[in-house]
Design a protein that fits this description.
Elements (H helix, E strand, L loop, with lengths): L7 E5 L7 H4 L1 H11 L4 E4 L5 H11 L4 E6 L1 H9 L2 E2 L2 E2 L5 E6 L6 H4 L6 H10 L2 E12 L5 E6 L2 E5 H14 L6 H11 L3 E7 L3 E13 L21 E7 L3 H7 L1 H5 L8 E6 L1 E6 L6 E4 L2 E20 L6
Parallel strand pairs: 1-2, 1-3, 3-6, 6-16
Antiparallel strand pairs: 4-5, 7-8, 7-16, 9-11, 9-15, 10-11, 10-14, 11-12, 12-13, 14-16, 15-16
Helix pairs in contact: 2-6, 3-4, 7-8
């Protein structure tokens, strides 16, 4: 019996991967046609447009929504699965064709980076229900805002690095995440914050990194939360106290391979609800899935198994 193909829509960020997605689109489209005979596609033209395109597609009965881009593009599309804090269609599934500079979420989902293998993966992989994070935070203009994230939200260093990357892009400079990370580490020493987990445990201190992790990897390959799972209904909260530049040079590599959890300046908690408040006058920036969105105070909440994606998780 011939398998029925789902009603499919593709959302493409043409400027992702430094514009290479636009250049490769004909190749990407032909690969998609090999497995999905009929589909509509849209190119995004401005920030956050992918969210509205996703909502429109899901209301129109789309069953499989494929995002072509990096972590930021996938984040925007995932936000479009929700409206008024409800999932528009619980049966709809998100597929990902990695075409960005980072694509950290795809590593936790074991999605191949190779184009043809990634498209084949979407056609064959099971629908995997994963947890989604929701964060209420202070927006750029001081107003309360909220967004969803799939992979990792963090405050402190990550937000500062992404801010620097964005500033260089606005100046039309060639931005390098690694270079911006090193430059930020030379000046940023962390921020004083108070953290509450599930309204039971509370701590405060000066932290360089605070990662609220659903997935394992952020920052273009750093395994900041090596024990995190996308389907365990819990955040892994990774806190890194302030480090000198020398300490970062000596021990920063541990963040890449995930061996940092035993370092004395790193602590890990687990929970479903995390409240973080600043204790210093300087703004504490936060980023979600690689996008700098606002600042603390912020409330992070997990929504268990609320989004279906094409992927699979290895057993711990």
């Amino acid at each position: 019996m011939k398998r029925r193909l789902p009603k499919t829509r593709v959302i493409v960020n043409p400027v992702s991967n430094q514009g290479r997605t636009r250049q490769r689109w004909l190749e990407i489209k032909e690969s998609l046609k090999s497995f999905f005979k009929e589909f509509k596609y849209d190119f995004t033209e401005k920030p956050f447009q992918a969210t509205e395109l996703a909502r429109e597609a899901l209301r129109d009965g789309t069953e499989l929504l494929i995002g072509v881009g990096g972590d930021g593009t996938v984040n925007e599309i995932a936000n479009g699965f929700f409206d008024d804090q409800k999932v528009i269609n619980p049966e709809a599934t998100l597929g990902i064709v990695p075409s960005g500079t980072g694509c950290d979420l795809t590593r936790s989902l074991n999605i191949p980076r190779n184009l043809k293998n990634a498209v084949k993966f979407i056609s064959e992989a099971p629908d995997l229900p994963i947890d989604v994070g929701r964060v209420s935070f202070t927006g750029p203009e001081g107003k309360l805002s909220s967004r969803y994230f799939l992979n990792i939200a963090d405050f402190g260093l990550g937000g500062e690095v992404v801010r620097r990357v964005n500033e260089e892009r606005l100046k039309r400079k060639a931005s390098s995440y690694l270079r911006c990370l090193i430059e930020t580490m030379l000046s940023f020493k962390g921020r004083e914050v108070k953290i509450s987990v599930d309204e039971r445990e509370e701590t405060s201190g000066q932290y360089l990194i605070g990662a609220i992790a659903n997935g394992q990897i952020f920052g273009k390959g750093m395994k900041v939360a090596p024990r995190a799972r996308l389907d365990d209904s819990l955040f892994d909260i990774i806190l890194v106290k302030s480090l000198s530049f020398l300490e970062f040079c000596l021990h920063g590599w541990k963040l890449i391979n995930g061996s940092h959890l035993n370092y004395h300046k790193v602590s890990m908690w687990r929970g479903q609800r995390v409240m973080v408040s600043p204790l210093s006058p300087e703004p504490v920036l936060i980023e979600l899935d690689g996008e700098q969105v606002g600042r603390l105070p912020a409330l992070f909440e997990i929504i268990p198994r609320s989004l279906q994606v094409k992927g699979f998780l290895r057993k711990s």
